[in-house]
Amino acid sequence: MSLITTYYSKLDRLAVLKLEIAELESSAELETELAFLGALEELLSDHNKTARDVAKIFAGEVVLPAGKRAKRSASTWTNPNTGERVVTAGGNHKTLKNWREQYGKEAVASWKA
After folding, report:
1. Model pTM?
2. Could you tell me if 53 and 92 lie in one domain?
3. In terms of residue numbers, what domain contains 85?
4. Is residue 69 part of a domain?
5. Which end of the chain is more exposed for a tag (fewer CB within 10 A), N or C?
6. Nearest 10 degrees: Cα torsion 14, 18, 20, 23
7. Taking a C-beta distance cutoff of 8 angstroms, is the pair 77, 113 a contact?
8. Is there a single domain that holds both residue 55 and residue 14?
9. What is the C-alpha radius of gyration for the chain, rounded to an integer number of angstroms?
């Protein structure tokens, strides 16, 4: 595709996007959601809280900081055909991959204890 064709293609897509944005902006539903979001941000600001603080309150548990992840609990998989057992914290185990290729994804998923 030539550069000029790319340019005109993007202009056409821009025109379509502008129409879609204008349609959204005239929507009463969007207006309601934006008003709610503004009121919520104002409330958070008034009480010196963040969205993460609110999530902690509603979830009733500690939300892990960004970049940290809870350890996965180990799962046990038992092949009913061979009796072989695999204990792994993830689904990316070599034996599980082989089983999925041999027996199918759905069948292996049903073997999880």
Report:
1. 0.42
2. no
3. 75-109
4. no
5. N
6. -170
7. yes
8. yes
9. 26
Specify whether the CB–CB gap between 57 and 71 falls below 8 A: no
The one-letter amino acid code at 32 reads T
Domain annotation covers residue 96: yes
Same domain, 7 and 55: yes
Q: What is the amino acid identity at position 72?
A: R
Among residues 102, 5, 99, the alpha carbon closest in space to that of 112 is found at 99
Alpha-carbon distance of 44 to 39, in angstroms, equals 9
In three-state form (DSSP H/G/I as H, E/B as E, the rest C), the secondary structure along the chain is CCHHHHHHHHHHHHHHHHHHHHHHHCCHHHHHHHHHHHHHHHHHHHCCCCHHHHHHHHHCCCCCCCCCCCCCCCEEEECCCCCCEEEECCCCCHHHHHHHHHHCHHHHHCCEC
In a domain, 7, yes or no: yes
Nearest C-alpha neighbor of 113 from the set 93, 94, 85, 92: 85
Position 66 in a domain: no
pLDDT at 5 over 70: yes
Domain count, the chain: 2
